[in-house]
Design a protein that fits this description.
nucleotide-binding; Rossmann fold; 15 helices; 3-stranded mixed sheet; 17% strand; 3-dehydroquinate synthase; Dehydroquinate synthase-like, alpha domain; DHQ_synth_fam; 4-stranded parallel sheet; 49% helix; DHQS_C
Amino acid sequence: MQSIVSDSYAVHFENRAFEALNSHLNSQNYSTIFILVDENTHELCLPQFMSEIEGEYTFEIIEIESGEVNKTIETCVGVWEALSELGADRKSLMINLGGGVLTDLGGFVASTFKRGINFINVPTTLLSMVDASVGGKTGVDLGPLKNQIGVINQPEMVLIVSDFLETLNERQITSGFAEMLKHGLIKNAGYWESLKKVSSLNEIKHHIRPSVALKNEVVLQDPTEQNIRKILNYGHTLGHAIESYFLENESKETLLHGEAIAIGMITEGYLSYKLTGLAKDALVNIKSTFLKYYPKVDFTDKDILDILELLKYDKKNSHGNINFVLLKQIGETQIDVTISSDLFHEAFAYYME
């Protein structure tokens, strides 16, 4: 499968991924290679990964705890300390083997340790393959507030091997699928329609490369998110606030990223219908599609007020305005739209009706 070239690195797929990795390791003189894993990828993915390495190198394994709740600066401190204790220097390499939490955090740790060491991302979840694999965003959460601390910094390469998806449960696969559906909504109506027909993991695998290519096309035009790259945030303004609220509220079951973003895409679809010309039948199309994959979540009036309070921390805000990406139609967006507060309650009412 043909690799996808970004601005300073490439995303390699399947067998080509390990060919590229082995060629890179052979051509570099890394002092030590650190592999960052969590307890799941340590057991389920690391043995297969190591079996594909050709040559003799010095490896050190660093394990962190899985889950968004551990995507914190405290976890980073633990990894920085481990790197120091294990003798890492500026000629070390970090390989991040895991989902988006691990690749985001690992990329941030590598980008800041001794002012930056090389890193390679090996995403093992569908979400991280189609979302975190492109764009160079690294970082951690600040309490329940997502991705408040971080830098944009590119890896040496990204390796996507779909066999790792066999280690996931159905809920995790469905979570990642939300980002693929988003790619169709913001950029390609035909892709949206084709994804709506997907019914198996094998079919999803065939759509991974097109999703990565679509995101890469957007990022290449706007690497630092000053303009068009903002379209990738569709569904994420409300979605991230919803995800943060359920993460910090002990009385609520934590939502996976894609589950929260799916709600965000329905509610922001309603805002698009009210403000940017999205047709009613397109809105119905969006809602029915997401509710086919993602069970409906109930929100009380207090839930909604608390979620809206979190919007003020969104990274896309500027000059006191909460900026949204909305749809003009499926496949076409409008950025930097400000919303009046009464419409938020209408949007949640539409989601729940």
